[in-house]
Amino acid sequence: MQVTFCRLRTHQWCFILFNVILFHALLFGADFVEQYFLHSLPYVDMKVLEIKDKARKLNMEPLKSNLSKYYVLSQSEVCKGKKIFLLSLVFSSPGNGTRRDLIRKTWGNVTSVRGHPVLTLFALGMPLLVTTQKEIDEESNKNNDIIEGLFLDSSENQTLKITAMIQWAVTFCPNALFILKVDEEMFVNLPSLVDFLLNLKEHLKDIYLGRVIHQDTPNRDPHSQEFIPLSAYPEEYYPDYCSGEAFIMSQDVARMMYVVFKEVPVMVPSDVFVGICAKSIGLIPIHSSRFSGKRHIRYDRCCYKFIFTSSETTDAEISLAWKEINDGKECTLFETYYGLISCKLLTYLDSFKPFHMGTIKNNAMYLGD
Ligand SMILES: *[C@@H]1O[C@H](CO)[C@@H](O)[C@H](O)[C@H]1NC(C)=O
Ligand SMILES: *[C@@H]1O[C@H](CO)[C@@H](O)[C@H](O)[C@H]1NC(C)=O
Ligand SMILES: *[C@@H]1O[C@H](CO)[C@@H](O)[C@H](O)[C@H]1NC(C)=O
Ligand SMILES: *[C@@H]1O[C@H](CO)[C@@H](O)[C@H](O)[C@H]1NC(C)=O
């Protein structure tokens, strides 16, 4: 083996080298290119200055004095007088107490990273059933970490949920430097996320960060459930926005968003709604490929130590990831590199699966007609 390897000619070596480079370029290139092109500075004009001024002068006192008009459970005291670096709001469905318990026991149990306080709370709307509400009340009394807005928690009301929760953060947690919106099916590596935010230290303002979706188009198929009529959104493309499974905004951005909520069309998907708000305050979303977006990242210890989120994680995976990330074993540069390659490749291969399953399901439905 050794001998044959040494006998390779120059052009053969070149060929191998070329392939190695091509392999890496395909695997990581897109991330770097995206990161480079999607990173530009926010713009400021008179309208944005006006919004910034309004955001500075926001008075949330009237809301505090009629709390019951907006929230069933308000947790109005959890942030009081505390300095919070990152407030994570886990968007949870009312009936999913088991998932919330799992998050409390695993990644949501982080209260501080390198001395920077982190607070995890659950964001809910109202359930359909009175019995579910009773369970939520009990859960809330026990844990004091549930915010429940005064609206029905349905898929159509997700935009309402985001506005209610940003309103909550601005009103009751104005000391939180950053706010993370994350869905309950995600695994979040809070320590690596906080580390990343700490490295942004030059500017802690104007941050709207996540996996950026570029030039997405509205669904114009009238038979689809996600149909967006021209009257609701006339333009061809959505502005760049952060995929809704997990994204971060700084407190000043949350305040500005609160100012512009009422001027933005609500009939679009909730993450697009946030993107349109961001655009109207002159923000350009910052992309990081360490956010998974909708994709499930195949489990690998060193990969999970590096990334920020993974979608559609099972209970067992969350427990395992949490345990292994906290076992104190560090990953060497090579292990991280190897982990990223393997989880990226496997995730890439996985991306073909739902496509086939979708096709099969569609065909089955077609045959069933
Ligand atoms: C809330 O309470 C304030 C008094 O603190 C009152 O002026 C206001 O009209 C009330 N209602 C709303 C919707 O803010
Ligand atoms: C959560 O963290 C606290 C300390 O911050 C610890 O005392 C507690 O045992 C942890 N809970 C679980 C379920 O790991
Ligand atoms: C959204 O919430 C409002 C307020 O609770 C409710 O009246 C409405 O039916 C909800 N919409 C949907 C589609 O669930
Ligand atoms: C709870 O959430 C998990 C993760 O999103 C999901 O797999 C599960 O079906 C949910 N359970 C209920 C009862 O909603």
From TrEMBL:
The keyword Glycosyltransferase applies. Its EC number is 2.4.1.-. The chain crosses the membrane at residues 12-30. It is a single-pass type II membrane protein. It is found in: Golgi apparatus membrane. Keywords: Glycosyltransferase, Golgi apparatus, Membrane, Signal-anchor, Transferase, Transmembrane, Transmembrane helix. The keyword Transferase applies. PANTHER family: BETA-1,3-GALACTOSYLTRANSFERASE 9 (PTHR11214:SF29), BETA-1,3-N-ACETYLGLUCOSAMINYLTRANSFERASE (PTHR11214). Belongs to the glycosyltransferase 31 family. This is Hexosyltransferase.
